[in-house]
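re: that complex we talked abt at group meeting.

here r the seqs, copy pasted straight from the sheet so there may be weird spacing, ignore it
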Amino acid sequence: MKSLNVHAESHCYPIIVGAGLLDSAEAVNLLKPLIDNRKCMVVSDSNVAPLYAALVSSALVKAGGHCAETAIIDAGESSKTLNTVEGLYHEAVARCLDRRAAVVALGGGVPGDIAGFVAATFMRGTRFIQVPTSLLAMVDSSVGGKVGVDLPEGKNLVGAFYQPEIVLIDLNFLKTLPKRELRCGLAEVVKYGVILDAELFSRLEDCTAGLLDYDLELYEEVVTQCCHLKAIIVGEDEREQSGRRAVLNYGHTFGHALEALGGYTALSHGEGVAIGMGMAADLAVTLGLAPAELPARQDALLSALGLATRYTVSSLAPAQVLQMMYRDKKVESGKLRLVLPRRIGEVELVADVDEEAVLKAIGGRCG
Ligand SMILES: NC(=O)c1ccc[n+]([C@@H]2O[C@H](COP(=O)([O-])OP(=O)(O)OC[C@H]3O[C@@H](n4cnc5c(N)ncnc54)[C@H](O)[C@@H]3O)[C@@H](O)[C@H]2O)c1
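got the structure back, here u go
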């Protein structure tokens, strides 16, 4: 088992990583001071709940929690709505949850973001515990306190910063994660290597087979390192004010646009990010920021992990993608701000990027 701490300005909390964690006495000991004699509501989705809700409820009960049944939402991004949140408020009232209660997110980023938003707002804030089950949630969404839901107009448009009390990462949960979802999480893992950690990037290059083969020892090392990197960034810029936290968006402005243009079905988040990182890397070369060989090295790793680095789903005009990029939350005063690599392990936030160069980078990978 590994443990590390997030030192966010608003709140410090531990992240514990290990295979079999939720089945262990350690999890019960960690949970006891947080939930002893409190009501709990586990929020999970229709895929994850049948697999792991009983295990998690049992750990909560052993830790002294008064645990009602799990509230189950439909699996998938389409559940990330205010409607789902309202349904969970009604469930919370029906279960007599009070301000001392704890909301426990069990699942990928979707249940995590929704449960966190419920925890942040129900009775003006209850305790919040993250038990991520997808690789993406383990390395990214469960850490850092961004919670919220989508609107029909766009993703993650309503939300809050609300840190959990603890993040419990049981690597055994990865065993049932579908391969496509595993790959999506791996896109975010590669992202950490490019933005912050050249050594992690090289390590990933050396162990692609083990990663695709669900090697849990390897995942203990990789997930812990990604959480460590995210914890550093969140510690420096919890509410995305200094621009430091924006580095985590490497590839995301391009990726979100591709995801949106595919109607959120053609490409998943991680698949969009993988192609988006390719576009950002090409753009960095065009702008003279990055060495010419960087995109090929990044592509080679992503391809070895089974991720596409070009958009081939349908034909898209680069101008369409650019237009969609301007809708990104990260756009400030109508100007695109993009995270671009200088070398593997180092990126820069570049404001007011030349549009022609952006169009060229998009066109090079789709169309
Ligand atoms: N809050 C943040 O900082 C942050 C960061 C990145 C992404 N996100 C959000 O995260 C969401 C994407 O996360 P995701 O990819 O985890 O989505 P998800 O929660 O929809 O999970 C993906 C799929 O995997 C299934 N699944 C999850 N764990 C499983 C397991 N162990 N075994 C079997 N099936 C399992 C789910 O049921 C779902 O079908 C998006 O809504 C995105 O906006 C949030």
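couple things i noticed - The chain is about 45% helix and 20% strand. The CA atoms of residues 7 and 122 lie 25 Å apart.
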